[in-house]
Amino acid sequence: MSGMRLTLLGLPAAAVAWASPALAPVVPAVARAIAVPRTLGAGAPVVAVTFDDGPHGSGTPAALERLAAAQAQATFFLVGEQVERRPHLAAAIAGAGHAIGVHGHRHRNLLRVTPGALRRDLDRAAAVIEAASGVRPTLYRPPYGIFSAAAVIEVRRRGWSPVLWSRWGRDWSHRETAASVTARVTRDVGPGDILLLHDADDYSDRGSWRTTIAALPAVLAELRRRDLATVSLPTSVGAGSPGPRRA
Questions:
Q1: pLDDT of residue 145
Q2: Residue 135 in contact with residue 129, Cβ under 8 Å?
Q3: What counts of helices (H) and strands (E) characterise the chain?
Q4: Strand (E) positions, the chain?
Q5: What is the spatial distance between Cα 31 and Cα 163, in angstroms, rounded to a whole number?
Q6: Which range is least confidently modeled, 96-105, 149-158, 174-183, 229-238?
Q7: Could you tell me the CA-to-CA distances from 207 to 120, 201, 216 in Å, in that order?
Q8: Cα–Cα distance for residue pair 151/159, rounded to 1 Å
Q9: Is 193 in a helix, a strand, or coil?
Q10: With the C-alpha atoms ordered 186, 187, 193, 199, is the resulting torsion angle positive or negative?
Q11: In the predicted model, what is the mean pLDDT of residues 9-19?
């Protein structure tokens, strides 16, 4: 992402306007400027654990098991093409009471997607996820956390809530261990943080989901040690949104 900042310096104004929202995950000021929340905001001592890229045939059931054992709630941002392959897992996520969001139908960098293609992608993802889970999703996180200007406009036009994260575990990399993921995602964690993990490896290093699953019990235990309740995201995230759902 730091390379993205340098690249933007040499672009014409129109290109900068198109691409600048992509900095939101790593530049809080950009996230504030485009009104995309990275946290739940001030308030109750709660955090939101979120998973991207699923559902995955092995990673998602394992995540659901560990969440159930800890009586923890989470939010799963699902990819439509993966839901088409495993609709029963989308239903299982909803059945367990977890929140569901859209992560696109295909997992693509939105800076390379035209507005028309984006609309079609989101239409298909939302339809597939609702048909499989029975939930009409209103939360949205783009692949890689990269928004284009068109994506911000389109998501808001639909009445959806775009959301990013404030802590991540870098659990998509084969270089990470359960201990390193746990340490990174819980470092300085506090009330209102949104944690990013991945229950799938279809768009990342093969087998990386195993590291996430191995880390998850320790992550949840550390949150409990800090007296932070684990909740799912509300259907609308941002100023004036309803409170998150507790386990």
A1: 96
A2: yes
A3: 10, 9
A4: 46-54, 75-78, 99-102, 139-140, 161-162, 167-168, 194-198, 229-232, 245-246
A5: 9
A6: 229-238
A7: 31, 6, 15
A8: 12
A9: strand
A10: negative
A11: 68
Distances in whole angstroms, Cα of residue 27 to Cα of each of 22, 45, 137, 196:
9, 24, 27, 16
And the tokens for 42? 């001030």
In 86-177, DSSP assigns E strands to 99-102, 139-140, 161-162, 167-168
pLDDT tens track for 31-59: 999 999 999 987 789 999 999 999 999 99
Interval 54-74: pLDDT, tens: 999 999 999 999 999 999 999
In whole angstroms, give the CA distance from residue 171 to residue 224.
Answer: 21
Quick check: bond before 55 cis, omega within 30?
Answer: yes
Beta bridge partners of 75: 50, 99
* Identity of residue 166: S
Q: How many whole angstroms from its chain centre is CA 166? A: 11
Q: Are 191 and 46 in contact (CB under 8 A)?
A: yes
What is the pLDDT, as a whole number, of residue 17? Answer: 79
Single-letter amino acid, residue 109: N
Cα separations in angstroms, 158 against 110, 119, 151, 152: 17, 10, 11, 10
Strand, coil or helix: what is 84?
A: helix
**Which pair of structure tokens corresponds to residue 199?**
């229950």
Above pLDDT 70, what percent of the chain? 90
Query: What is the spatial distance between Cα 47 and Cα 98, in angstroms, rounded to a whole number?
Result: 14
